[in-house]
Amino acid sequence: MAQHILFKAGNQTFAIPIDQTDKIIALENITRIPDVSSYIVGVQDIEGEVVAIIDLADRFYSQPNQNQEETEIILVNWKETQVGLLVDEVTTVQAYDTSDLIDKETEKVDGLATSYITAFVQVKDEIVPVLDPHSLFTGDQAEEMRKLVAIHTIKV
Question: How close are the terminal C-alpha atoms of the chain, in Å?
Fold first, then answer.
């Protein structure tokens, strides 16, 4: 049994493995960045670290979140750093039996638009995609994120 955080983004419920997350925080004092993809909301200081904040509704559906005052940020591990996923709301923590899942590393097709979905969980009256945070960005998106998180932070 693996625990997952369930959340809503763009009126869709998603799950992410809890072991790929750090914490859930509020959106505060965001610094917007010019000339980046629209789903990159900006950066935020989180415990002394500058973290890129990604609007998942905009990333997945090209529909930016219109009510950022009521959103939450899930801090996730992406590559060797952290990014914040801006979501409509975190709904619950749920355990799923994932022992029968195919090894996603051997079955994943790089560059496929949906390569960030590792499984679908059927619960009651909806199907919940399980996300792999390391695969949220492909190609040019991943390069843009790498360049953004590589920018040096000068502390004064």
Answer: 45
